């Protein structure tokens, strides 16, 4: 709950104003029973119509003031709660954008969505109720008890018998409610996982005709959430009737014993009417408090889940502030690096040792699943090594500011991803200040200028979401051009030439060689023809580095490399 209070503390003035209006509202509610008793005793019983009208007018004015205060209190409580939710969502989103991929994998996308939406909504609803009742319930309870005892001490003892039952019931609900609310949020996470997989994997599901199986999987997740929610609602549904039963039984006993006291002349009818209203206010205050405490477990569950996100130490918070200067010579060293994914039993990378320098091309090759992409993601700090270290110019990589490090990298991912917008928008994604000459130069190097010029509006041609209106090779070339526009110190090509034909691949590599001659170049590739002329080639096999050297050296010393070369013999000769 500390998380909620921390955000609410930014609205101190509004909360103080809210409490002032709640105080006035409580006074009006406590004053109405007294006015009612005065009307009955001094007006109705005596038959004084003027007294009834005069006090009745005052009663209407007090009631009207109470209505105004209630509206203002509701508005202020909602305004504060919505503001807290707004700031909480902003901070959660900002925090998540700095997560490493390791942290993303730990929480899961579906859970992050649930926490940012449903969990914060639960906190907002609980905060509205808390703000409206936190001061109202104690004021009504204390004020009602004082006024009730001032009317009749013996009759007030009945209230003391009812209070322990309400407190005990509230405690039981709290104890049973917390695990149920936690279970509901976890089931909601699971439903989001299944639903998201169905939406993103719709093509695969249809191609394997698994619609029926996926419907069953979604139905199961939905049923689990439904069952958990029903259990919570049963508990909540039982709370209000039980409270009403206690309140009505208490009032029945008061009327019963009050009747005897009126008959004996120890109590006036008006006082009994006022006393019943006081008791109603006291019991309503207890009910409000119990309902507030019932809402707290759900808010506590959601607050804990939000707090988990906000307290995670991101790369930015763990990194130093040193910056990489543009154009400075770089030496990147992997020293005995090991890595395993979250909750994995086996290492993905083991004993990785090599050095990449400015002006040199380092290539990484290996079979599918050998850890090639994982290795370059460690350099970009998408993940942190399990053991070992990565150095840049002799200093650990974590002494550098993450944004500065990534600004020095031009990354072309394995799967070319383009955004909706124009061709020029996508090329400027890494360098907003790039001129049209820069875009044309980069596109020419990436062998993309020819097909871009042939598009209806050239560089201003719209690209659909994900580049749906372009071929795989076109998307890959634009992704390479986007990295060139950035003018980075380190180029990383993660299997970025696989969708190109051999002729385009050869032209592109020749153009890149001139552009990147004073840069660190790291190429992940499947084709030996793509990396044949690299200064050093790293060979991976099941996560282990089994070879390092030039093409000629590896052909003599590395069995794995020779096997790859033998399977691509025609391609090697072409390169």
Question: Concise description?
Answer:
With 575 residues, the protein is an alpha/beta fold. The protein has 22 helices and 12 strands.
User: What is the CATH C-level name of the largest domain?
Assistant: Mainly Alpha
Beta-strand segment tally: 12
Strand fraction equals: 5-15%
Rounded average pLDDT: 83
Shape: elongated
- State the end-to-end CA separation: 64 Å
Rounded Rg: 36 Å
Strand order of the largest sheet: 6-9-10-3-11-12
CATH 2nd-level architecture of the largest domain: Up-down Bundle
Approximately how much helix is present in the residues? 55-70%
The number of helical elements comes to 22
- Sheet having the most strands: 6 strands, mixed
* CATH topology title of the largest domain: ABC transporter transmembrane region fold
Structure description:
By secondary structure, the protein is an alpha/beta fold. It folds into three domains: 2-180 and 237-314, ABC transporter transmembrane region fold (Up-down Bundle); 328-408 and 490-504 and 520-575, P-loop containing nucleotide triphosphate hydrolases (Rossmann fold, 3-Layer(aba) Sandwich), CATH 3.40.50; 415-487, P-loop containing nucleotide triphosphate hydrolases (Rossmann fold), CATH 3.40.50.300. It is built from 22 helices and twelve strands. The protein has helices at 2-8, 12-44, 49-97, 101-107, 109-133, 136-151, 153-200, 202-207, 211-263, 269-310, 315-318, 372-379, 402-407, 423-427, 436-445, 449-453, 472-486, 502-515, 528-531, 551-557, 559-567, 569-574; strands spanning 331-339, 349-357, 361-366, 387-392, 395-396, 409-412, 421-422, 462-463, 490-494, 520-525, 536-541, 544-549. It has a six-stranded mixed sheet, sandwiched between helices. It has a four-stranded antiparallel sheet with strand order 2-1-4-5, with helices on one face. A hairpin with a 2-residue loop joins strand 11 (536-541) and strand 12. Helix 3 (49-97) packs antiparallel against helix 5 (109-133), helix 7 runs antiparallel to helix 9 and helix 15 (436-445) crosses helix 17 (472-486). It is elongated. The two termini are 64 Å apart.
């Amino acid at each position: 709950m500390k998380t909620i209070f921390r955000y609410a503390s930014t609205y101190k003035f509004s909360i103080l104003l809210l409490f002032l209006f709640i105080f006035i509202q409580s006074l009006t509610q406590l004053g109405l029973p007294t006015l009612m008793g005065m009307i009955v005793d001094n007006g109705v019983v005596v038959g004084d119509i003027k007294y009834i009208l005069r006090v009745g007018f005052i009663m209407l004015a007090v009631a009207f003031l109470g209505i105004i205060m209630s509206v203002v209190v509701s508005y202020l409580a909602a305004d504060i709660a919505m503001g807290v939710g707004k700031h909480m969502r902003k901070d959660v989103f900002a925090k998540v954008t700095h997560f490493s991929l390791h942290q993303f994998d730990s929480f899961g996308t579906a859970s992050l969505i649930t926490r940012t939406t449903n969990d914060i909504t639960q906190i907002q609803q609980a905060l509205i109720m808390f703000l409206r009742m936190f001061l109202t319930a104690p004021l009504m309870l204390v004020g009602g008890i004082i006024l009730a005892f001032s009317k009749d001490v013996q009759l007030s003892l009945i209230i003391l018998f009812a209070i322990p039952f309400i407190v005990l019931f509230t405690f039981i609900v709290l104890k049973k409610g917390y695990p149920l609310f936690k279970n509901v949020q976890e089931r909601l996470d699971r439903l989001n996982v299944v639903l998201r997989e169905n939406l993103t994997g719709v093509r695969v599901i249809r191609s394997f005709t698994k619609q029926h199986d996926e419907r069953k999987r979604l139905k199961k997740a939905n049923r689990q959430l439904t069952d958990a929610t029903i259990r919570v609602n049963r508990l909540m549904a039982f709370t209000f009737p039980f409270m009403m039963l206690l309140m009505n039984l208490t009032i029945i006993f008061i009327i019963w014993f009050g009747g005897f006291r009126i008959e004996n002349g120890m109590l006036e009818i008006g006082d009994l009417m006022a006393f019943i209203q006081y008791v109603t206010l006291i019991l309503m205050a207890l009910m409000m408090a119990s309902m507030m405490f019932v809402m707290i477990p759900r808010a506590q569950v959601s607050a804990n889940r939000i707090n988990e996100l906000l307290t995670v130490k991101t790369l930015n918070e763990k990194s130093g502030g040193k910056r990489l200067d543009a154009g400075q010579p770089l030496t990147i060293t992997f020293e005995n690096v090991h890595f395993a994914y979250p909750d994995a039993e086996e290492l993905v990378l083991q004993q990785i040792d090599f050095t990449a320098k400015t002006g040199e091309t380092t290539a990484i090759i290996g079979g599918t699943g050998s850890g090639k992409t994982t290795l370059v993601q460690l350099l970009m700090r998408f993940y942190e090594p399990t053991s070992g270290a990565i150095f840049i110019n002799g200093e650990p990589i974590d002494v550098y500011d993450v944004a500065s490090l990534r600004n020095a990298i031009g990354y072309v991912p394995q799967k070319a991803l383009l955004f909706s917008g124009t061709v020029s928008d996508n090329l400027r994604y890494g360098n907003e200040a790039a001129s049209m000459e820069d875009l044309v130069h980069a596109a020419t190097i990436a062998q993309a200028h020819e097909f871009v010029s042939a598009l209806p509006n050239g560089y201003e041609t719209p690209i659909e979401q994900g580049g749906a209106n372009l071929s795989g090779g076109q998307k890959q070339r634009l992704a390479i051009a986007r990295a060139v526009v950035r003018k980075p110190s380190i180029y990383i090509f993660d299997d970025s030439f696989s969708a190109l034909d051999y002729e385009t691949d050869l032209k592109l590599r020749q153009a890149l060689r001139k552009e990147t001659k004073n840069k660190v170049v790291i190429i992940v590739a499947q084709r030996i023809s793509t990396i044949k002329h690299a200064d050093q080639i790293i060979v991976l096999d099941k996560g282990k580095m089994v070879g390092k050297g030039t093409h000629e050296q590896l052909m003599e010393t590395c069995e794995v490399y020779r096997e790859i070369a033998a399977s691509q013999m025609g391609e090697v000769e072409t390169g």
